[in-house]
Amino acid sequence: MNFYKQAADILTKLSAREGSIKSLTLANTVKEKKKMYALICETLKYKDVINKIIDNSKLLKVEKQNLSDGPYKIAIMRNEIILRAELVKLKIKSKVKNNEDLISSDYRNAVVLPRYVRVNTLKTTVKKVIEHFQLEGYVLEESIKVLSDISTRTIRKDFHLLDLLILPPKTDLHDHPLYLSGEIILQDKASCFPAYICSPQIDSHVIDACAAPGNKTSHLSAIMKNTGKIWAFDLDKKRLKLLEKLTQKAGCKNIEAVHGSFLDVDPLDERYSKVEYILLDPSCSGSGIVNRLDKLVDAFEQETDQSDTSQNSQDLRLKNLSEFQEKIILHAFKFPSAKRIVYSTCSIHPQENEQVIQRVLKQTETFLLANRNDVVPTWDRRGISSEFNDEETAVKLIRTLPEDFMNGFFVACFIRVSENEVNDNTSNLVTSTNITNDLTNR
């Protein structure tokens, strides 16, 4: 298929939500994957500029007959002078000199994050992965707290998560043998926190309520050393297929993918009678994601559908999301054996985070928030204290922001009251310390 025709087909599928940018551009049917990926991303970034130039040049009217039965590229080249002239006019009107200054500041001033690599301990060890990169010329640096000066061809161990490695920004590992074999997983640091905090024990039963695409699910499996049972629920059949593919690639053997809504699951169903851990990562605004490719698609959809992007629409969306998030937490509380429930979002909005936590805590006498010592105590950025009446509640929550060199995230951990009362200050649940010791010995 013609390269540009294939690109147009991908854009059409993106607008119809028939796949992600990565899944469509890296598909087997795409021969020039890197070139296609770059073209799609740049097209979406400049979509407003492109549309204005096409409209102002009246290209579609002038070439109406030719475009119906001829190559698009030839039509573009035939009108190159006119199109370039419209670009110049647009820059003059916008009072900018560079093409880059025409695009949204969200993309122009985007934060550049390190490349995080989670070592899949089901298949390899941190030591072996580091040695592999060293053979490729990477240098292991011991300075792990300062990420602003990370240079090329360096690799670092993460300070908080010992199965996580840090490589320079924009390091492309999609064709790397360790990635293709499932020995490493490309996962942002912030999204590694939920499974790490959930910390399911060996041989335990776990529910991942909104599981696709499966990175957190495979992380749970690795923590459990492929023992016990994980039920992974998702409503989206295609995304669930992706979860099955990715978790199989990761060597996970304790996962059962279930097509359906977690909210439809009967907490008293005998199959889930031993479920002690539940991971909740429900739909959210995604406002914390830096350089999120989905944002390009969302913007593309909004223009195509002429969606209402007003503040009222945003407020309504957050209200609907927060109500769903509240509902899913309350449903998790109903599982009789559940003793540890982790809730996370990739949102920076208090409406989806602290305010949801406030509401659900008022509706339960069975669960409360785990103490800070059980929720990555070495992590400094905690919940927003102004959203609560006391600082003590906020410090039990975790927040991350792009200035922490990762995506914006929120994590809360609920534990059953009875266990908290029995153990008081020294919880016997698996904690971050236990996992740290386990990883150190691998």
TrEMBL record:
<dbReference type="GO" id="GO:0005730">
    <property type="term" value="C:nucleolus"/>
</dbReference>
<dbReference type="InterPro" id="IPR001678">
    <property type="entry name" value="MeTrfase_RsmB-F_NOP2_dom"/>
</dbReference>
<feature type="binding site">
    <location>
        <position position="234"/>
    </location>
    <ligand>
        <name>S-adenosyl-L-methionine</name>
    </ligand>
</feature>
<keyword id="KW-0949">S-adenosyl-L-methionine</keyword>
<feature type="active site" description="Nucleophile">
    <location>
        <position position="346"/>
    </location>
</feature>
<feature type="binding site">
    <location>
        <position position="281"/>
    </location>
    <ligand>
        <name>S-adenosyl-L-methionine</name>
    </ligand>
</feature>
<keyword id="KW-0489">Methyltransferase</keyword>
<feature type="binding site">
    <location>
        <begin position="210"/>
        <end position="216"/>
    </location>
    <ligand>
        <name>S-adenosyl-L-methionine</name>
    </ligand>
</feature>
<dbReference type="Pfam" id="PF01189">
    <property type="entry name" value="Methyltr_RsmB-F"/>
</dbReference>
<comment type="similarity">
    <text>Belongs to the class I-like SAM-binding methyltransferase superfamily. RsmB/NOP family.</text>
</comment>
<dbReference type="Pfam" id="PF21153">
    <property type="entry name" value="NSUN5_N"/>
</dbReference>
<keyword id="KW-0694">RNA-binding</keyword>
<feature type="domain" description="SAM-dependent MTase RsmB/NOP-type">
    <location>
        <begin position="105"/>
        <end position="417"/>
    </location>
</feature>
<dbReference type="InterPro" id="IPR049561">
    <property type="entry name" value="NSUN5_7_fdxn-like"/>
</dbReference>
<dbReference type="InterPro" id="IPR049560">
    <property type="entry name" value="MeTrfase_RsmB-F_NOP2_cat"/>
</dbReference>
<dbReference type="InterPro" id="IPR023267">
    <property type="entry name" value="RCMT"/>
</dbReference>
<protein>
    <submittedName>
        <fullName>7246_t:CDS:1</fullName>
    </submittedName>
</protein>
<dbReference type="InterPro" id="IPR029063">
    <property type="entry name" value="SAM-dependent_MTases_sf"/>
</dbReference>
<dbReference type="Pfam" id="PF21148">
    <property type="entry name" value="NSUN5_fdxn-like"/>
</dbReference>
<dbReference type="InterPro" id="IPR048889">
    <property type="entry name" value="NSUN5_RCM1_N"/>
</dbReference>
<dbReference type="GO" id="GO:0070475">
    <property type="term" value="P:rRNA base methylation"/>
</dbReference>
<dbReference type="GO" id="GO:0008173">
    <property type="term" value="F:RNA methyltransferase activity"/>
</dbReference>
<keyword id="KW-0808">Transferase</keyword>
<dbReference type="GO" id="GO:0003723">
    <property type="term" value="F:RNA binding"/>
</dbReference>
